[in-house]
Amino acid sequence: MILIISVDNDTITDEICTWLSYQNKQFVRLSESQHINKVCFDFKNNIFKISIGAIEYELGDFTSVFYRNGGIYYETIPGDIDSILVDFYNSELKSISEFIYYYFRVNGVRIFGNLLTKEVNKLEVLFLAKSLGLKIPDTYILSEMNDLKQIDMSQAYITKAISEMKPIIVEYGLYLNYTHELDVNNIHNKKENIIPSLIQRKIHCLYEIRVFFFEKQVWAIATFDFSGSVDIRNIKEKDKRYLPLILPPELKKKILILAKKLALKCGTVDLLKSDEEYYFLEVNPLGQFHQVSYYGNYQIEKHIADLL
């Protein structure tokens, strides 16, 4: 039996489930709408059961687990409950989830995806990538305008969030902190301090690269941008072109070493290709790989289903 942990309306998970059904493999998917509604753990007799809907499963029945995103979801408390009690209830459920993960790990269940490592620190990743010999853009974290004088003013720079991007809602407006080009000359003489901010030298690239790694397999596509935007997420599809790409063996090796040191079993890596160099930007443990699979014609969803 295969356990898939995902969220509702995740098209990648939908396609993997389609392949599993085609291969006649038994699986159950946990999500917000398909959650655990009963738990029965008997430590004396070593029986550990969960119920999903009307069906009961023993944890020992699961031979492999694929974590896509989200988490283990439980039935919510009915009625109007004090927020302190809700927090306590959630902390109890968190301990149960952690035990389920532990049970899978110590009982030799094959775990795919980042069930145990769901987040990474962007600065730690950059520091590690550089130590492994991956080229990164000149990077600074600054909180005083005076410190800008250490930057080469003849270069162009960008700024983006240090942490993961969070949507900000103010009244009826939605704001997303995308990557933006920074006019260093315009702010160089300002006296105000700023919150610690990430500043990177803008790389004039030939194309961007999206890499997806899963276990020891690596797939990549090149994205050509004809809009001039500094953040590919802001580019309309009509202004982009994709090609499958074979990475140099040494670069692929470094990506897999980076993944191992970060305890990541899968994820997406963003790179830039200039005239002479490959520049590492970041790794996303929950990265979307649909574009890589579709435009590279890799059928990654089938590959994952085959492993499960």
TrEMBL record:
Name of the protein described by the UniProt record: Uncharacterized protein
